[in-house]
């Protein structure tokens, strides 16, 4: 029996979901993977021991890789609407995703509710941890870390919500009774403040690194990098600069080969600041539930369904000699670096190479590419946030240095291509950083919201139907408004 939800939160709070499919599994770290399957456990017999605390925190990480967080709902709201991606697949397959690409979506569209529910389910699991673990007699250092991990994931989910919907209900505890089920929307400024508080407290308690058995958990660097991104969306440039400068000193670096940085052998690499952990464990079939790679794999092959594909606009956005073009896009008719021959004909001319799992690594009986981690924050993103903030704060030297570190990797050791940016003009340098974010972070679910925060959405997306004073946010799901008996209000224009 699972928790029921009203207003995307708990209607019954007597049970905690700790099923085997929810246990976190960082790639390649077997001691963190080998967990005994657990049945759904009544709360009255749970929250008693350190082992219970571990199960509960692991369930938070496992929730991050589910369908709502990484497949259709996430791609519909965070990737497909941008100019770099489109629905893909065959024209008639999941044609409803086009509503997000051409901005005709209404509040009854199911992907909206899926995304909304996915984030609040994450938040629910975090709040259960934060409400209950303080009362458990256990190792004090581990307790503090577990609470910090929950605050990090809660902040991450609220950031995704506020970026997509604007004002959203802010829940920081599990409801005590029915009177707390339905909550009105909280002004986004207050939601951002709660996110920043969580991340500040998380960074203070999280370790900078983990032993191998815990690789993949949230770190101090992850909390600070996410905090920097949250601050960037509020144009708090002094804060972005301070936070990213700190992360730059934590030992992260760029994987020399851009294409290789997205392959299975480089998960949780020196470039990884935070990844959603995915894995195939044959002994626990239900745990291999990620469909992130499957839904984006090359259609007509053994790899997947062919959704969320690059656009011609993205293909033409790369400069001559930029190695990221071929590392980001699988072109129809090519042979990948791993030796997979892509058919010269098919539904789509291009596919997302960042989510690609080599065909030889597809394991029969499991979702295609279920072991592929989802890169959430890479060190390259931190460098580009640092460059943007430094430029806005008048530190041109630092801005150029951080920007050109990213470009240097992209030229792949070939002289004469992708020359360093040298302009010291603030407006031109800002444009250069924005352009670099487009090509470096393409297909990683940042482009759409980047353009909106930059104030350029009407220009960049206008031809697709994007309208100012409406499409800055998505509609609140109609079912949520209905279930809340009018306590929730709709966004303007929907």
Structure, described:
- With 494 residues, the chain is mainly α.
- It has one domain (5-279, 375-475): Alpha Horseshoe (Serine Threonine Protein Phosphatase 5, Tetratricopeptide repeat).
- 41% of the residues lie in helices and 6% in strands.
- The strands form 5 sheets. It has a two-stranded antiparallel sheet.
- Strand 1 and strand 2 form a beta hairpin.
- Helix 6 (110-132) runs antiparallel to helix 7 (140-165), helix 7 packs antiparallel against helix 8 (188-205) and helix 9 (220-232) runs antiparallel to helix 10 (237-248).
- It is globular and about 65 Å long.
Helices and strands, with pairings:
Layout: E1 5-6, E2 9-10, E3 15-16, H1 30-33, E4 41-42, H2 50-63, H3 67-70, H4 72-78, E5 85-88, H5 98-101, H6 110-132, H7 140-165, H8 188-205, H9 220-232, H10 237-248, E6 272-276, H11 292-296, E7 307-310, H12 312-315, H13 324-328, E8 329-331, E9 350-352, E10 374-378, H14 379-392, H15 396-410, H16 426-440, H17 447-453, H18 457-461, H19 478-483
Antiparallel strand pairs: 1-2, 3-4, 5-7, 6-10, 8-9
Helix pairs in contact: 2-6, 2-7, 4-6, 6-7, 7-8, 8-9, 9-10, 10-14, 14-15, 14-16, 15-16
């Amino acid at each position: 029996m699972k928790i029921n939800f009203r207003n995307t939160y708990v209607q019954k709070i007597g049970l905690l979901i700790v099923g085997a499919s929810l246990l976190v599994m960082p790639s390649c770290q077997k001691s963190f993977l080998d967990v005994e399957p657990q049945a759904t456990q009544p709360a009255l017999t749970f929250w008693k021991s350190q082992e219970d605390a571990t199960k509960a925190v692991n369930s938070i990480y496992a929730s991050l890789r589910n369908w709502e967080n990484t497949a259709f709902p996430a791609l519909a709201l965070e990737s497909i609407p941008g100019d770099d991606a489109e629905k893909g697949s065959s024209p008639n397959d999941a044609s409803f995703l086009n509503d997000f690409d051409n901005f005709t979506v209404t509040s009854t569209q199911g992907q909206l509710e899926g995304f909304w529910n996915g984030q609040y389910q994450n938040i629910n699991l975090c709040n259960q941890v934060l409400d209950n673990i303080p009362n458990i007699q256990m190792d004090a250092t581990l307790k503090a870390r577990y609470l910090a991990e929950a605050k990090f994931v809660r902040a991450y989910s609220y950031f995704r919500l506020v970026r997509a919907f604007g004002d959203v209900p802010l829940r920081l505890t599990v409801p005590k009774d029915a009177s707390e089920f339905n909550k009105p929307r909280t002004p986004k400024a207050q939601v951002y403040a709660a996110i920043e508080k969580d991340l500040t407290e998380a960074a203070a308690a999280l370790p900078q690194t983990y032993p191998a058995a815990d690789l993949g958990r949230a770190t101090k660097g992850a909390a600070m990098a996410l905090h920097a991104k949250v601050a960037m969306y509020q144009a708090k440039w002094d804060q972005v600069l301070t936070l990213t400068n700190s992360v730059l000193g934590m030992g992260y670096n760029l994987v020399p080969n851009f294409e290789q940085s997205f392959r299975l052998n480089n998960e949780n690499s020196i470039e990884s600041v935070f990844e959603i952990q995915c894995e195939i464990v044959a002994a626990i079939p239900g745990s291999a539930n990620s469909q992130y790679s499957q839904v984006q794999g090359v259609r007509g092959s053994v790899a997947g369904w062919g959704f969320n594909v690059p656009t011609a606009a993205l293909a033409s956005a790369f400069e001559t000699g930029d190695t990221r073009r071929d590392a980001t896009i699988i072109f129809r008719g090519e042979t990948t670096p791993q030796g997979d021959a892509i058919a010269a004909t098919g539904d789509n001319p291009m596919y997302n190479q960042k989510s690609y799992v080599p065909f030889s690594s597809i394991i029969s009986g499991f979702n295609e590419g279920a072991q592929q981690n989802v890169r959430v924050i890479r060190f390259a993103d931190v460098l580009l946030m640092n460059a943007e903030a430094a430029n806005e704060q008048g530190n041109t030297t630092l801005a150029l240095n951080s920007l050109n570190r990213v470009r240097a990797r992209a030229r792949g050791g070939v002289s004469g291509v992708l020359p360093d940016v040298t302009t010291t003009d603030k407006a031109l340098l800002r444009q250069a950083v924005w352009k670099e974010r487009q090509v470096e972070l393409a297909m990683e679910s940042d482009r759409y919201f980047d353009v909106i925060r930059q104030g350029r959405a009407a220009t960049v997306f206008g031809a697709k139907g994007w309208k100012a004073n409406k499409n800055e946010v998505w509609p609140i799901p109609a079912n949520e408004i209905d279930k809340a008996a009018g306590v929730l209000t709709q966004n303007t224009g929907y």
